[in-house]
């Protein structure tokens, strides 16, 4: 029996590769988003610590204007960085959405080619089975005819 060869195998491989690349890019974008989340959490915690330091210095009864001012300034800088990370997360979020759309389309393309391959394989198997049945019938008829002559 002949081996099945899908005539569009190269197209199927290309589409599978594209899907793989989309998955990889989506994974990288999700990792970048997680890094931004972690950085934001770290900066927020650090900012909270700065305000706690200001409160603890004031609770002692002394007011250190210069120290409180520098701590507040630093806390403001941290807030600016947090906002910047938030803007970056919005951009990454849009990229993630685009990656997911592209991945869904690539997935559909691969499934369509796999379905076509299955259809062609089924037709090939059916044709091969028909040929084998005809050969068996011819063999059976030939043996019957030669068996009947004896």
> Which ranges are low-confidence, i.e. pLDDT below 50, for 5 or more consecutive residues?
none
Share in β-strands: under 5%
Strand count, sense and barrel status of the largest sheet are: none
Total number of helices: 2
Global geometry: rod-shaped
- Structural class by sheet pairing and helices: mainly alpha
Instruction: Summarize the helix and strand pattern as letters.
Output: HH
Q: What's the gyration radius in Å? A: 35 Å
Distance from N terminus to C terminus (CA atoms, Å) equals: 33 Å
Number of strands: 0
Mean pLDDT: 91
User: Helical content, roughly?
Assistant: over 70%
Write the layout of secondary structure elements.
Elements: H1 9-59, H2 65-149
Helix pairs in contact: 1-2
In short:
With 150 residues, this protein is mainly α.
Report on the architecture of this protein:
It is built from 2 helices and no strands. It is mainly alpha-helical and 150 residues long. The chain has a domain at 9-110. Helix 1 packs antiparallel against helix 2. The two termini are 33 Å apart.
């Amino acid at each position: 029996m002949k081996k099945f060869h899908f005539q569009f195998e190269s197209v199927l491989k290309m589409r599978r590769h594209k899907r793989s690349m989309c998955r990889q890019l989506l994974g990288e974008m999700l990792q970048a988003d997680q890094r931004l989340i972690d950085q934001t959490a770290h900066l927020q915690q650090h900012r909270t610590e700065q305000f706690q330091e200001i409160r603890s210095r004031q609770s002692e009864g002394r007011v250190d204007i210069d120290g409180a001012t520098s701590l507040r300034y630093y806390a403001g800088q941290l807030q600016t960085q947090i906002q910047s990370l938030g803007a970056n997360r919005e951009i990454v979020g849009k990229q993630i959405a685009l990656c997911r759309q592209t991945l869904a389309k690539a997935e559909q393309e691969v499934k369509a080619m796999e379905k076509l391959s299955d259809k062609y394989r089924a037709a090939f198997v059916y044709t091969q089975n028909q040929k084998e049945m005809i050969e068996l019938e011819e063999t059976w008829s030939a043996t019957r005819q030669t068996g009947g002559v004896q």
